[in-house]
Design a protein that fits this description.
Helix 5 runs parallel beside helix 8. The longest helix has 29 residues. This protein has 17 helices and 25 strands. The chain is α/β, with parallel strands linked by helices.
């Protein structure tokens, strides 16, 4: 378990460096990430490279036994490059160039930009590739599949479509052009989606463009990775991810990289647990965090309230509990200029260490005592399926007021986590055989391999939960001409006779045990074939109609949730599923307490995190050993944002 910091030596005069690095070493910093913003420093003029300052920094890190991640600085090109080659600037959907100086303003499909990006990458790796102190290279920064409609992107989008569909006629058939703008007669007529709302444009075209943007980012990151590997074959290469408006297909993006790393903004949500489980599920292994924010983001002005005492360390522990192996805090020093100046670092503008620094220092000490979990991993009984196609398609055509694809996944994640269950968030094509329960929310876009994988899982004895808005669209984002949920109706033993996008209106449902719950956003009205009703609507014109079903199919069980319930509904449903499948449940956890388990096959380590402002007490079934305090514990007293690791 390693703790580190992001450091930007180019933003400080050299008198700071030695003192900062010595202070890092004394505090317990093991890893530093540098370089991701430094292109203009490393190449101040075209073809003129200056690594002297970084050479000095690298020697200082080596002397202090601090490992280094070098970020390839292609997300912040120098002004001379823009001036010499304005064609590299990304354009919006109306063809207007982005303002220079913002993140993501370069077109990754521009051959000119890619050429320069490879050159700076090649020179960096040639210069530092033999340095044994470098533990990883980060390709780009804040990887997003930004849309661009420059000439290069338009041409490459057309080529991408032809490569996929072979002929213009096949493209017309896939995009359903006869019912929208009319057939394309020539490939040059195809344009990316415009700035007009996507919901009023051809949804098939919009989905293909999202896929194209994702594939473009995949290709670009792979080009940078291959450039690094050609110079240094043993180099470890990653890219850092975060949830954004323009998520690429992260499963594909990391298919060629060595490990997943991410930017974690835990103050932006009630809990970052869902995102952390997502990051781990991208390639099914533990991950690194290359930007762990130490305070609420100061880029979004006006500024948000500061982190509460214990919150910064608690959220870092939360990341560790969900599979993080290396946590790099953003950032060592607060910037004194630029838009990041109020993204408060561990050391503030005053240069006087304060509460954040001392909390960080204490967390470094705790991390140094956690060697017992270095070889552990998360093993889960539950998987939630996430498909990038579904997220893109729902963004193109929102289904009802308040309906959000990612939120459908979160509802189940929160319910399982509330019982202390580990949860993996994986692609629908992933191996599902090891899970006792699989949740497949809103399987909107049909993919043959995914549907077969889900059927295979249930046939072999698995327990599946499918939800409304499944089987609606084919692979091209055109509606399937069949009773919903189309390809899944045999599996669930029921059909949707009617649906109602109720938005923020309320309906109530009552389950087989007489428990009543509120639902909003969506109501599927179901006709049973082989299934039994698990819950029915309890009011309005749908009273007594099935809302949730349960069907035994071959060796397994498939549930179908036709409504979007409240938190109590998911807690009740998930509790019943865990009981039936034998997934262990922790009952009576205080509100806000999160529990995960890491294992090395011999020992299980239970991580408790109190993600709340209130103190929490937990009585243990037996005395357990605290690896933080090195004592036995029969009861846990958790302060707000407090944490423990117990050996089971």
């Amino acid at each position: 378990m390693k703790i580190g910091v992001d450091y930007y030596p180019e933003q400080w005069g050299s008198p700071f460096w030695e003192k900062d690095i010595e202070m890092m070493a004394q505090t317990g910093v093991k890893t530093v990430r540098i370089g991701d913003l430094a292109w203009s420093e490393l190449e101040p003029e075209e073809g003129v490279y200056n690594f002297r300052s970084f050479d000095d920094i690298m020697r200082m890190f080596s002397r202090n036994n601090i490992e280094v991640i070098i970020g390839i600085p292609t997300s912040r090109p120098p002004l001379w490059l823009y001036q010499a080659h304005p064609e590299i600037i990304r354009t919006d959907r109306e063809g207007k160039k982005m303002p220079v100086g913002l993140k993501g303003q370069c077109c990754i499909n521009s051959p000119v930009f890619v050429d320069y990006a490879k050159k700076i990458t090649e020179r960096l790796v040639r210069h530092y590739g033999t340095d044994s102190n470098i533990v990883a290279w980060q390709a780009d920064n804040g990887t997003e599949a930004y849309p661009c409609s420059c000439d290069a992107c338009r041409e490459q989008f057309r080529t991408w479509l032809l490569d996929k569909y072979d002929t213009i006629e096949n493209i017309n058939n896939a995009l359903g052009t006869t019912t929208w703008i009319g057939k394309y007669n020539d490939i040059s007529q195809i344009q990316p989606p415009s700035e007009y709302p996507e919901s009023s444009q051809n949804p098939a075209l919009c989905l293909e463009y999202s896929r194209f943007c994702s594939d473009s980012m995949y290709k670009y990151v792979k080009d940078i990775m291959l450039t690094i590997k050609r110079e240094c074959p043993k180099a470890k290469v990653t890219a850092n991810i975060h949830f954004s408006q323009y998520n690429p297909d992260y499963y594909r993006l990391f298919s060629d990289l060595d490990f997943v790393s991410c930017s974690n903004y835990p103050f932006a949500d009630d809990s970052a647990a869902f995102f952390l489980d997502f990051a781990r599920g991208v390639n099914g292994r533990n991950f690194w965090i290359t930007e762990q924010h130490s305070n609420p983001d100061g880029n979004s002005l006006p500024m948000k309230p500061s982190a509460k005492p214990g919150q910064m360390a608690g959220y870092a522990f939360q990341a560790l509990a969900h599979g993080a192996e290396n946590i790099i805090f953003y950032r060592w020093r607060s910037a004194v200029s630029g838009p990041d100046m109020f993204s408060q670092g561990l050391i503030d503008h005053s240069c006087v260490p304060g509460r954040r620094f001392y909390e960080f220092s204490e967390f470094c000490k705790i991390a140094s005592r956690l060697g017992a979990i270095d070889t552990t991993e998360i093993v889960s009984d539950v998987a939630i399926l996430y498909n990038p196609d579904n997220e893109w398609a729902f963004r193109i055509q929102p289904q009802s007021e308040g309906f959000d694809y990612r939120d459908q996944l979160r509802k189940f994640h929160t319910a399982f986590s509330g019982y202390g269950a580990n949860v993996d968030i994986v692609h629908p094509d992933a191996d599902l055989s090891g899970y006792k329960a699989v949740i497949a929310p809103a399987m909107y876009i049909y993919k043959k391999s995914s549907a077969e994988n889900i059927y295979r899982y249930v046939v072999k004895g698995g327990t599946l939960v499918l939800t409304s808005r499944s089987g609606v669209k084919d692979a091209n984002n055109n509606c399937i001409m069949d009773t919903l949920p189309s390809v899944y109706k045999e599996l669930i033993g029921a059909e949707v006779t009617e649906y109602d996008p109720i938005g923020n209106n309320e309906q109530t449902i009552i389950d087989f045990a007489g428990n009543q719950f509120v639902c909003r956003q969506w109501c599927d009205i179901l006709r049973l074939t082989t299934a039994k009703a698990y819950a029915e609507y309890n009011d309005g014109c749908y009273k007594c109609c099935p809302a949730v079903t349960m069907n035994r199919y071959c060796g397994g069980v498939a549930y179908y949730v036709g409504a979007v319930g409240d938190a109590d509904f998911y807690k009740s449903l998930v509790g019943n599923i865990m009981r039936q499948t034998g997934i262990p449940r922790l009952k009576g956890l205080p509100s806000g307490v999160e529990v995960t388990t890491r294992t090395n096959g011999l020992n299980d380590f239970i991580c408790f995190f109190n993600n709340s402002d209130n103190e929490a007490a937990i009585s243990l079934p037996k005395s357990m050993y605290s690896i933080i305090e090195s004592i036995g514990k029969e009861k846990l007293e958790l302060k707000p944002y407090g944490f423990y690791i117990l050996r089971k």
